[in-house]
Design goal:
By secondary structure, the protein is α+β, with helices and mostly antiparallel strands. It is built from 14 helices and 16 strands. It folds into three domains: 152 residues, Beta-Lactamase (2-Layer Sandwich), CATH 3.30.450; 176 residues, 2-Layer Sandwich (Beta-Lactamase); 136 residues, Alpha-Beta Plaits. The longest helix is centred in the middle third of the chain and has 39 residues.
């Protein structure tokens, strides 16, 4: 029998048991109004024994009053600062569910459903005083009347099942996120916090990264549902709890943030709210470098059990593994891009290589002939470049070449291309551009180059009139040298 089937059967048995009790109360007490205390007490005693044997806390109420309540649910809820026997406190909690951070979702659901005439069931898992309590709320129709039922059950011994659920879900979350092109740590953090809050494991969850400049950056940091501080940064001078975990590279548990907030070497826990928190920080370490921290915090003193801390360690390990994977993947992608660019670009100037130029030009020439669109090609030679090298040296000559390419790139479109043909000779390709517009671009380039005291000669042709790249090179080269001769003759 699998886990879901077992849970379903347990809930079904519980429902049958409670329904039988409600029917008895309804028939014997509500309908017949028969004052048979002996029989009633005997039934309640038998019913209570069955409930106790199931380790269940139970309260049942109708529109007017509580029908049944046992000591176990009183004890379970007392640990959560709820006295279920105090009608005034319960009424206030139902009116304002957010006033109880631990049970706000349960209280909100009861507030929404308690007077709705339809069957309803929902289950939560809560960590209360280091115990895991399964809370079930049911709205049930019995013989024409609706009853509200809340059960509590200590499932601390079943924590391994909860842990596996959380870790499996966490792996699914991270697997889905890291498969995307852009990793959003804020979105990942929100999904993880939602998962942990579902089991009342944390109130606050944060992922912090150490920046190269020493700042701590929090891609995700959330206090409660409404106080989102994601994106904040702290300078290297701020010696807070996060920096302590990162700098020391060790897991750190603070059982009481108010009493134990002072840490060694001048570090301290900074509290935003005037409350005591239990804080647990785990460093993000890979390649033997502390790169950040994962923070788990909960309102109250000493709130984390050993089982919970063990789970947090596993959560942090999975997050660390995911970040390490993403980091490595980005490095591989960067190196791949760098090697690709080295293969298609001139290492000195950043202009495209002659080999890439020929592939690009052939593709664009074929395209222009199919679409009957012009394509202009410009051959450029830097005037008196040999004299520049001889007079000022090759280092200065390299600076001239790099400056030349930078000026060209500032004056052309993203779809245009500049390639180094050889030495101080370069070729520009202007797709979908006629000779007139190409001349206009060259006028802008000449004006910009003059400010850098760089002079050039160039020739322009419409490459659609030629059948091969070799013919293009020959013709545009002839025109460039014609301009150079005119310039030298001036």
């Amino acid at each position: 029998m699998n886990e879901s089937t077992s849970s379903y059967l347990a809930l079904l048995i519980l429902l049958i048991l409670i329904t039988s009790f409600i029917i008895y109360i309804h028939v014997r007490v509500v309908k017949k109004r028969k004052d048979d205390h002996t029989e009633k007490e005997r039934f309640l005693s038998m019913f209570g024994s069955v409930i106790e044997a199931q380790n269940l806390g139970l309260v049942i109420w109708d529109k007017k009053d509580i029908v049944y309540i046992n000591a176990r649910i009183i004890a379970h809820l007392k640990d959560a600062q709820i006295d279920i026997r105090d009608r005034q406190q319960v009424r206030k909690l139902l009116e304002n569910p957010d006033s109880n951070l631990l049970f706000y979702d349960v209280l909100g659901t009861i507030k929404e459903k308690a007077n709705v005439d339809e069957d309803f069931t929902q289950v939560w898992t809560k960590e209360i005083e280091k115990k895991f309590i399964e809370v079930t709320y049911m709205r049930k129709n019995c013989i024409g009347l609706y009853y509200n039922i809340v059960t509590t059950r200590d499932i601390s011994m079943e924590f391994s099942v909860i842990e596996n659920k959380i870790l499996n879900e966490l792996i699914n979350i991270l697997s889905e996120e890291i498969s995307k092109d852009n990793i959003d740590l804020k979105e990942i953090g929100e999904k993880i916090r939602t998962l942990l809050v579902q089991y009342s494991l944390v109130d606050i969850f944060a992922i912090a990264l150490l920046e190269p400049n020493g700042e701590i950056y929090y891609p995700y940091f959330k206090y409660g549902d409404t106080d989102d501080r994601s994106g904040m940064r702290y300078s290297s001078e701020r010696k807070n709890f996060t920096r302590y975990v990162i700098d020391k590279g060790m897991k750190t548990l603070i059982r009481d943030s108010k009493k134990n907030g002072e840490l060694p070497d001048g570090y301290r826990v900074f509290t935003i709210y005037d409350k005591a928190f239990t804080d647990y920080g785990v460093p993000i370490i890979y390649r033997n470098i502390s790169r950040g921290a994962v923070l788990f915090e909960k309102t109250g003193v000493d709130q984390f059990s050993e089982s919970t801390i063990s789970l947090f360690d596993k959560v942090a390990s999975i997050i660390t593994l995911a970040l390490s994977f993403v980091d490595t993947l980005q490095e591989v992608q960067y190196e791949r891009k760098r090697f690709f660019e080295l293969s298609i670009k001139d290492y000195l100037t950043g202009a495209y290589s002659r080999r890439f130029l020929e592939q690009y030009l052939e593709k664009e020439m074929n395209k222009s002939k199919r679409t009957n669109r012009p394509i202009s090609v410009v051959f450029i030679d830097i005037d008196k470049f040999k004299e520049i090298n001889d007079k000022f040296g090759h280092v200065y000559g390299d600076v001239v070449l790099k400056t030349f390419v930078e000026v060209i790139n500032r004056n052309i479109r993203a779809m245009d291309l500049i390639a180094r043909y050889g030495g101080d000779e370069f070729i520009l390709v202007f797709p979908e551009t006629d000779i007139t517009h190409a001349h206009n671009v060259m006028d802008r380039i000449l004006e910009s180059l003059s400010k850098e005291k760089i002079s050039i000669s160039f020739g322009i042709i419409d490459a659609t009139a030629f059948d091969s790249i070799e013919e293009v090179y020959k013709e545009v080269d002839n025109r460039m040298y014609g301009m150079k001769r005119r310039n030298e003759g001036c």
